[in-house]
TrEMBL record:
<keyword id="KW-0418">Kinase</keyword>
<protein>
    <recommendedName>
        <fullName>4-diphosphocytidyl-2-C-methyl-D-erythritol kinase</fullName>
        <ecNumber>2.7.1.148</ecNumber>
    </recommendedName>
</protein>
<feature type="domain" description="GHMP kinase C-terminal">
    <location>
        <begin position="203"/>
        <end position="277"/>
    </location>
</feature>
<comment type="similarity">
    <text>Belongs to the GHMP kinase family. IspE subfamily.</text>
</comment>
<dbReference type="Pfam" id="PF00288">
    <property type="entry name" value="GHMP_kinases_N"/>
</dbReference>
<comment type="function">
    <text>Catalyzes the phosphorylation of the position 2 hydroxy group of 4-diphosphocytidyl-2C-methyl-D-erythritol.</text>
</comment>
<keyword id="KW-0414">Isoprene biosynthesis</keyword>
<feature type="binding site">
    <location>
        <begin position="95"/>
        <end position="105"/>
    </location>
    <ligand>
        <name>ATP</name>
    </ligand>
</feature>
<keyword id="KW-0808">Transferase</keyword>
<feature type="active site">
    <location>
        <position position="137"/>
    </location>
</feature>
<dbReference type="InterPro" id="IPR004424">
    <property type="entry name" value="IspE"/>
</dbReference>
<dbReference type="GO" id="GO:0019288">
    <property type="term" value="P:isopentenyl diphosphate biosynthetic process, methylerythritol 4-phosphate pathway"/>
</dbReference>
<comment type="pathway">
    <text>Isoprenoid biosynthesis; isopentenyl diphosphate biosynthesis via DXP pathway; isopentenyl diphosphate from 1-deoxy-D-xylulose 5-phosphate: step 3/6.</text>
</comment>
<keyword id="KW-0067">ATP-binding</keyword>
<dbReference type="Pfam" id="PF08544">
    <property type="entry name" value="GHMP_kinases_C"/>
</dbReference>
<dbReference type="InterPro" id="IPR014721">
    <property type="entry name" value="Ribsml_uS5_D2-typ_fold_subgr"/>
</dbReference>
<feature type="active site">
    <location>
        <position position="10"/>
    </location>
</feature>
Amino acid sequence: MSVTVRVPAKVNVQLAVGAARPDGFHALANVFLAVSLFDEVTATPAATLTVTCEGPDADRVPLDRTNLAARAAELLAERAGIEPAVHLHIAKSIPVAGGMAGGSADGAAALLACDALWGLNTPRAELLDICAVLGSDVPFSLVGGAALGTGRGELLTPVEAGAFHWVFAVADGGLSTPAVFHEFDRLTAGTAVPEPEASPALLAALASGDPDALAATLANDLQPAALSLRPALADTLAAGTGAGALAALVSGSGPTTAFLVRDEEAAAKVAAALEASGTCRATRVASGPAPGATVLPA
Ligand SMILES: C[C@](O)(CO)[C@H](O)COP(=O)(O)OP(=O)(O)OC[C@H]1O[C@@H](n2ccc(N)nc2=O)[C@H](O)[C@@H]1O
Ligand SMILES: Nc1ncnc2c1ncn2[C@@H]1O[C@H](COP(=O)(O)OP(=O)(O)OP(=O)(O)O)[C@@H](O)[C@H]1O
């Protein structure tokens, strides 16, 4: 018997970043939108905890205990007082180290898959606590849809969202999330960093489903830091807006870039132009909100 869980990537439609806290994390007002790029994690009984991964970027995914899927299985087993006797197979479609919470997604998916495989029926609130231990983005991967994350991003309040179409441009290589936050600190040193707050105009635009309104309010405070570490991303952003995207921004800590488009037709046009521009490695078309981690029927 095995259990497979499907889990979405995310884009941050607003990422407001405050000053570094004493614990090193930054206070955030993080408006997450889950989008229809999915990883699948399959949990199968095994003698010991093992991880395998397939997909175009599989060689960049660690297969040891640092994999967030493995850590999720260990934490859940420890809590239940059992051995993590499971094989986890990751079918990876979400860009690796791309700012789309791919590792976080696998952590949330493995947690849900092991909970079902081991028949634990762990209460949702406890699963969310384990997610928060795994990483700031992990609770949202479990929940999906659209949500405001406060604290370091782990404290979630669901928000309303209409349907939106996106194109994502995958960059060569990844960006380290801590390195991007450090660059944010360097760029903002000596300035008063305001308390992060969700924008009422952005939340209204998200709820309305109006892509023009959302395009006017998208904001990512990590974008200058990501561009500072990877200046060529400016060319990708310009190529997408030049091709008719309503708005362009870096996804989370990058280096994936996200392009909001009016409809599927515009998505195909912008994706083709981005591919022809030579400013990215590949493109992906998706829409959101997408559901959070879900057990697939056997
Ligand atoms: C950039 C985002 O993806 C936006 O959703 C997240 O804030 C990052 O979430 P994540 O990858 O789950 O991050 P974590 O695994 O919790 O933290 C990794 C590292 O990112 C930095 N970090 C992360 C979250 C946060 N609120 N402040 C931070 O400064 C810290 O250096 C931390 O050591
Ligand atoms: N299951 C996993 N899939 C991908 N990377 C993983 C996984 N588990 C651990 N990692 C490690 O985490 C690093 C960041 O990968 P990930 O794909 O989660 O980045 P990200 O999408 O930028 O994250 P975020 O958007 O949450 O900041 C990788 O370089 C890899 O070393």
